[in-house]
Specification:
Elements (H helix, E strand, L loop, with lengths): L2 E7 L5 H16 L8 E5 L5 E2 L1 H14 L5 H5 L2 E3 L5 E3 L3 H8 L8 H9 L11 E6 L8 E4 L2 E5 H8 L5 H16 L10 E4 L3 E4 L13 H10 L7 H13 L13 E6 L15 H15 L3 E4 L6 E6 L5 E8 L2 E7 L5 E2 L3 H14 L2 E4 L5 H13 L6 E2 L6 H5 L4 H19 L12 E2 L2 H8 L1
Helix pairs in contact: 1-7, 4-5, 9-11, 10-11, 11-12, 12-14
Bound molecules: zinc ion (2 copies).
Length: 450
């Protein structure tokens, strides 16, 4: 399945916003290399206003396609305006007009409701429509549901006019709202904040799906970090899951350079660094450092090493050791408090999977001797949403499960195997539920949080 992302602009929107909106949509799609070919971005050709002659042509064309069509049915959708033109009742302009309040401001909730025709079921083939208006709103910059975002460039401009950040800010609004459309922060996942007025958001302060992501402070923090991907790994995983399992988007096999080789490290690991540019270390750090903090474990990194070299010391004295010689090669090992080799903490395997998902890679089982190690990596890959693509993984059968000594890992593998078997007979669950969220202007958020 392929999906269109249509950009639809209200009358009077300045060309710079049209350009930025399109660039933001491209930027969003680029984050998903495996689905990139299944998501096409187009500017909508649908107009708001038509002449009588144009309507006659539309009727003529429709009749040639289907002679049973009643021309009156088509005419009904065009409303005569005082200036003699006809407004199409399903155009961005018509929807906005129905949502405007006495002060001429757009009510984003009403607009989205008009555009979505209420709470109807959305078909998989339907495009996602990003609608942008230059008008100001009663509250907020944007709102979205499965049909797509409604964005007020006017609200953004009124706050950012002339600022060098205007472009980045506007693009982030679009990308955030697309995040909602692609189900980034659904209720069933971890790490979310559910707000009565603002909807469901990410609990990660550095993530663009954070509840208060539009606050100046958060915007500046993101700007300073200059991350390639503004979303956290939880949000990325949810969106990938949605693209694959709800939209059924065709998924392209990732290329060779997007394979992450995971190896079992040994005691005196001396690997030749393959990359001279140490910038790859940042992406590893961004995964392991916060993960260690979450576990209340001590994170230590050898900054001087040319490879990424980190140790995570747990309160029980055991230490996980991570060595990555580049963006696509990592080794993992661990020692207990007495310095004896042991299996790394299960969370480290999950970290590696989170890293691979962020990079859009598949995981290859590299140089791994122990079944216990393989079992943990396999488990982390299968637990991921969507499940991680694997190369060279052991088959999850009874013999493999029986060979595992660790009872907890063994139990989890058994559960995973049972789940896989029962899922084969069940149809996939589809979600037609609409989600919406209002992203309030920063001023309002400031007032509420004080
Ligand atoms: Zn997030
Ligand atoms: Zn939001």
């Amino acid at each position: 399945m392929k999906k269109k992302i249509l950009l639809e602009f209200d009358l009077g929107l300045s060309p710079k916003y049209k350009k930025w909106a399109k660039e933001a949509a491209v930027q969003f799609v680029e984050l998903f290399p495996e689905f990139k070919d299944s998501l096409s971005i187009q500017i909508s050709k649908n107009k708001s206003f038509y002449t009588k002659e144009e309507i006659e042509k539309i009727i003529e064309k429709s009749l040639s396609n289907n002679p049973n069509i009643d021309p009156q049915e088509i005419k009904k959708h065009f409303i005569l305006q005082p200036d003699g033109t006809y407004l199409h009742d399903d155009s961005v302009h018509a929807h906005i007009l129905k949502s405007i309040d006495a002060n001429g401001l757009v009510d984003l909730r009403k607009w989205l409701n008009e555009k979505s025709h209420g709470n109807r079921v959305v078909e998989k083939r339907e495009p996602i429509v990003i609608s942008v208006t230059p008008r100001l709103t009663t509250m907020g910059y944007g709102i979205s549901n499965v049909v797509g975002p409604c964005i007020s460039a006017g609200a953004c401009e009124s706050l950012m006019r002339g600022s060098e950040d205007e472009e980045a800010y506007f693009k982030e609004i679009i990308i955030h709202e697309l995040g909602h459309t692609f189900n980034a922060t659904h209720l069933e996942r971890d790490n979310i904040l559910d707000d009565k007025n603002l909807g469901t958001h990410c609990a990660d302060q550095d993530c663009l799906m954070y509840l208060h992501a539009y606050l100046t402070e958060r915007f500046n923090a993101r700007k300073a970090q200059r991350k390639k991907n503004p979303f956290c790994s939880d949000c990325m995983a949810s969106m990938r899951d949605y693209m694959q399992n709800v939209f059924d988007l065709d998924r392209k096999n990732v290329q060779e350079n997007q394979v992450l080789h995971v190896n079992q490290g040994n005691d005196n690991q001396n690997s030749d660094p393959v990359v001279n540019d140490p910038s790859f270390k940042k992406a590893w750090r961004e995964i392991f450092q916060p993960s260690a903090e979450k576990q209340k474990a001590e994170y230590k990194e050898d900054i001087k090493a040319s490879e990424y070299r980190a140790e995570i010391k747990h309160t029980n004295g055991s230490v996980d050791k991570i060595v990555a010689t580049g963006a696509n090669n990592v080794s993992l090992s661990a020692k207990d408090k007495d310095g004896n080799a042991k299996m790394p903490n299960m969370q480290r395997f999950r970290d590696i999977v989170a890293y691979a998902q962020k990079q859009g890679s598949v995981i290859e089982f590299g140089d791994i001797k122990s079944a216990e190690f393989k079992a943990r990596l396999l488990l982390a890959c299968m637990e991921a949403k969507p499940a991680m693509q694997m190369v060279g993984a052991p088959e999850l059968n009874d013999a493999f499960i029986q060979s595992i000594q660790d009872e907890k890992i063994k139990g989890l593998l058994q559960i995973m195997k049972n789940k896989n078997e029962s899922q084969k007979d069940k149809p996939q669950t589809k979600s037609n539920q609409t989600r919406s969220s209002i992203s309030m202007p920063r001023k309002d958020i400031g007032r509420n949080s004080r």
